[in-house]
Amino acid sequence: MGGTEGRGPRMVALCMLGVVLFNFPILALFNAPAMLFGVPLLYVYMFAAWAALIVLMALVAED
Amino acid sequence: MADDEPNIVTALEFLLEKRGYEVQVARNGDEALRMMEDLPPDLVVLDVMMPQRSGYDVARLIRERPEWAHVKIVMLSARGRAVEIGKGVASGADLYITKPFSTRELMQRIDGLLAR
Amino acid sequence: MLHGPVIVLSAFAYLGLLFAIAFYADKRADAGRSIIASPYVYSLSLAVYATAWTFYGSVGRAASDGVGFLPIYIGPTLMIALWWLVMRKILRISKQNRITSLADFIASRYGKSAALAGLVTVIAVIGILPYISLQLKAISTSYSILVQYPEVVMPDQPGAHTVGVGGDTAFWVALILAAFTIAFGTRHLDAAEHHQGMVAAIAFESLVKLLAFLAVGVFVTFGLFNGFGDLFGRAVQVPQLQAMMAPFGGVAGGYASWAWLTFLSMMAIMFLPRQFQVTVIENLDEKHLNKAIWLFPLYMLAINVFVLPIAFGGLLRFPDGTVDADTFVLTLPMAEKQELLALLVFIGGLSAATGMVIVETIALSTMVCNDLVMPVLLRLRGLRLNQQPDLTGLLLGIRRGAIVAILLLGYLYFRLAGEAYALVSIGLISFAAVAQFAPVVLGGIFWKGGTRRGALCGLIAGFGVWFYTLMLPAIARSGWLPIGVLEDGPMGIGLLKPLALFGLGGLDQITHAMIWSMIANVGAYVGLSLAAAPSAAEHRQASLFVDVFRQGGETGGGARFWRGTASVPDLQNLLARFLGAAAAEEALREYAAARGRRWPEQAIEADAELVHYVEMQLAGALGSASARVMVASVSKEEALTLEEVREVLDEASQVVAYSHRLEQKSSELEAATAELRAANERLQELDRMKDDFVSTVTHELRTPLTSIRAFTQILYENPDVDLEQRVKFLGIITRETERLTRLINQVLDLAKIESGRAEWHETRLDLREVVADTVTGMSQVFEERNIKVDMRIPERMAAVRADVDRIIQVMLNLLSNAAKFCEPGSGRIEIVMSEASGALRVDVRDNGPGIDPADQRVIFDKFRQGGDTLTAKPRGTGLGLHISRQIVEHFGGRMWVESHPGHGACFSFTLPT
After folding, report:
1. Which residues of chain A have a CB within 8 Å of the CB of C82?
2. Which of A58-62, C101-105, C514-518 shows the lowest mean pLDDT across its residues?
């Protein structure tokens, strides 16, 4: 992919993505007393989104 | 004879015919060359300053034709500088005369050229 | 099995293991075969971020807040994404400038200010005290609980003044940890402040605490319950537990707290002294960052996966609230009689706490020594430190003393204020303190305009607000200050209530404190930075920091800004005093070798580069502010004015500007040369034209002369020419003589006009008369050729000033031309006179063949004539029109021609009235 030059902006984008995913508007979507695989929805979302973000960061950093 | 100056033509025609030569007059170089095709003269008088084709060019063209090698060329010019004379000779002229010229001298020289 | 001695022995055994690892690692590092030069070790060392707070406190928070504990780990994840830009820059700067601590970094950036270094140290120490006390509390509490196995009873709170210091577990823990830390981190001085043994040890302990936590998590989730589904399924049955599963509840305060907590954690991961230490100072290779960027967040994810299950498990297991949620991690295995697991958990918690204490205390003690104590001591002339040959003992002694002091202070805080809050809240107070460093550091690496004064005031303002809104209430709530301060504000001023400044209520304490402290901090920092320009030293450092990626090698940036005199022996002595004689020699030898010289056989110059190099070496041991002072004392430095610094910095741009000017000059030169060449050509042309003119004139003269001479000779030598021919020849002679005369006259005329020597007799004349007279004069010619002349002349016309003869000359010229070119027999000439806009105009029109457009341009030139030169010899001299135009223009008029071939020509001229 892009090489060293492109990584900085891409990382910034990931950070922005994280800020959006883990704040008010999106968070409110999952703030419901529902269950997914027997686990509360909010928890599933949090950990899944977190894991996904880490995977993306790994992909960009180890390019 | 090729000259675009009518007075010169008149004078030379008179003098030459007086001496017994047959004279044919052309108004410019191309006309002269055409006339030479029909009947090659023994001598050609050329004015250097002529429209379209200068006397030098005509002389050179004459000299390019081996069958006209015997034709004598006399050049008339108002310019008398050494370089012009040299140019005239280089073009193949046998005689280069500057205007105004002495008619007697011109006739004598022509006689000489045609006598040989 | 689990009684006191066993527990204590296990604890010591573990600590011993850590020490052994550290020792081994240091040995390997000295031998040059470091075991920690691996990105995986580096990433694990960063996990020192997870302390007893993570181990015990997260569960405690989750039990009351649900996911409210997560921002502390999500925030760093987001910040680490930005590390690619921010941390790499900080790493590069720190390597280049031999930065030894956070205080060093900040002080160095703002002009190597000792005051700033001291202030940062004070803030850091005070700010971290709660955090340290938290660890002490965790260790002592976990011990107290475990020791009562198999009973699960909460221990008495030590802060209730029931236990003396001597009987307080926490006190002994503090002392033991102090000794341990001293053994870990102060065995020798390292120029770059690397503590490889410490790094190895905490990487190991990161693994231990992760393993321990995962073990408990698995036990609770799959041992006590039947997996996540079962656990949460049962939790949902309990109403208050179900409410916790969706904690935000549409209240803005919930989301706001969440956001601020995230932001706070983002700052903490950067500016906690221990994080700065392991991330920046202990970093061995910039490339390790690449792996750490995702490994470290992964670690945090892993250690948090089971927090919620454990929390709910604990709430389900201990529904009556007698067991503190902070202790679930330990009490759950205890309640299920899992002795080994409980011990493992205890060790895990111990590991987490000691890791934090060791690194944090070492980092803080370094700052205290380099940035607080040493600068003061050096300035105290009385001590005459300049003359001590070896100060390494002093430095180590200061650091050890600092470690003990910090730990005891931590314990003190614990006694004073620790029990009023849950673990997490205590930790957040420290987070808020170190967050005050964010503006000055981030501003410092991206904005050259930040000044020392701005940084000082920003820090003081932010810290002040922090103290007032967070520390004060903690102390008050523990009973050491009247509670009225909290409820009514100091001296009853409601607006200054520490928990609701200026009426901003309804927020949780941390959010409230963060808002106000950030406003004060950033406001003061930016405001004062903009108010005054940076000094020369600040400007220099600012460039070094902000432009670190744009500069060349390590020494290139700094060496240029120094001017002074020093000697190599002085510098060597200086190095020896702080690093030891052997290290000093080694350093100089390396310096010389890098420049291709063998020292001391070959001398090295004491120039700016060497001084800079020595300063860098000293900074590794003393911190940059102190190093600067020492170097300045041996070299007489001349201060650079801000102008000079700017000059040096702008040198490159000046060179560029100069070369631009050179280019401009050379292009101007080219333009001038081109102009000269053009002028030269014009002159040559004029010369040629002159030659042409002369040759043309001579030619024109020779032609009639030839005729005259020839015919005269003919007539003279041939008396027998017949009469007709004689008349003809004489006629030619006459005509040519006339022609010659005319030509000569015209040439002379032209020469006189052009040289200005002509005589002009100006009078007022009636143009109509002149024209009419001329026409009359030529009437004979017109008759001969049968040319009709029409004249259209107005009744009255203004008078003009001109030379009559000359105007006649002009009219004659025009009329004779017209006559010449008319068709004989059907010629018509029209003369029109008119008056318009201050001039009289005369038009002479003929109905001849007209003039070619090409010729129209040239007929007014000298010796140029109209008509086809092929077929008809021109009948004039070629000068007539030229002279006519000269005459007309002399009197201020114009002459021109209009003609279409085949439709005659019209010559016109004007004369001004």
Report:
1. 11-12, 15
2. A58-62
CA distances, C516 to each of C311, C418, C433, C470, C513 (Å): 33, 24, 12, 11, 5
Same domain (yes/no): C578, C686: no
| Residue numbers in chain A where pLDDT is lower than 50 | 1-2
Domain boundary (C477, C507, C533) is at C533
Per-residue pLDDT tens over the stretch C680-726: 887 877 777 777 777 677 777 777 888 888 888 888 878 787 888 88
Q: What is the CATH number of the domain that holds C863?
A: 3.30.565.10
Whole-angstrom Cα distance, residue C575 to residue C584?
A: 5
pLDDT in tens, C417-450: 766 565 667 788 889 999 999 999 999 898 888 8
Number of domains chain C is built from: 5
Q: Which of C590, C621, C638 represents a domain boundary (last residue)? A: C638
Regarding whether C188 and C54 lie in a shared domain, the answer is yes
Bigger pLDDT: C38 vs C502: C38
Contact assignment for C707 to B103 by CB distance below 8 Å: no
Give the whole-angstrom CA distance, residue C533 versus residue C910.
Answer: 75
Residues of C in contact with B13 (CB under 8 A): none
C708 has a chain B CB within 8 A of its CB: yes
Cα C842 to Cα C910: distance, rounded to the nearest angstrom: 6
| Residues C301, A54: C-beta atoms closer than 8 Å | yes
Q: What distance in Å separates residue C311's CA from the closest CA in chain A? A: 13
Contact status, residue C403 vs residue C186, Cβ threshold 8 Å: yes
Domain membership of residue C548 (yes or no) is no
Same domain, C834 and C708: no
| Residue contact A33–C246, C-beta within 8 A | yes
In a domain, C219, yes or no: yes
Shortest distance between the Cα of C337 and any Cα of chain A, in A, equals: 28
- Check contact A-C (3+ Cβ pairs < 8 Å): yes
Report CB contact under 8 Å: C709, B104: no
- Top-confidence residue, C401 or B81: C401
Closest residue of A to C263, CA-based? A19
Angle of CA points B102, B106, B109, to nearest 5°: 140
- Which structural domain, as residue segments, surrounds residue C528? 451-533
| C300-322: pLDDT as tens digits | 999 999 999 999 888 888 887 77
Q: Do A39 and C255 touch (CB under 8 A)?
A: no
Q: Of B6, B28, B103, which has the smallest distance from its Cβ to C713's Cβ?
A: B103
- The CATH number of the domain where C702 resides is what? 1.10.287.130
pLDDT value of position C770: 85
Q: Which of B61, B74, B77 is nearest to B109 (CA)?
A: B74
Asked if residue C59 lies in contact with residue C310, where contact means CB atoms within 8 angstroms, the answer is yes
Contacts of B99 in chain C (CB under 8 A): 702-703, 705-706
Element (H, E) at C440: helix C437-446
Dig out the tokens for C468 from the structure: 């007032």
Q: Are C95 and C82 in contact (CB under 8 A)?
A: no
Nearest chain C Cα distance for residue A2, angstroms: 15
Distance CA C188, CA C583 (A): 13
- Answer whether C899's CB lies under 8 Å from C837's CB: no
* pLDDT at position C250: 46
Least Cα separation, residue C704 to chain B (angstroms): 9
Do chain B and A touch: 3 or more Cβ pairs under 8 angstroms?
no
Tens digits of per-residue pLDDT, C165-198? 666 788 888 999 999 899 878 877 766 678 888 8
Per-residue pLDDT at C761: 82
Q: Which residue in C751, C838, C857, C845 sits closest to C799, CA to CA?
A: C838
User: Quick one: pLDDT at residue C158?
Assistant: 47
Chain C: residue whose CA lies nearest to A24: C255
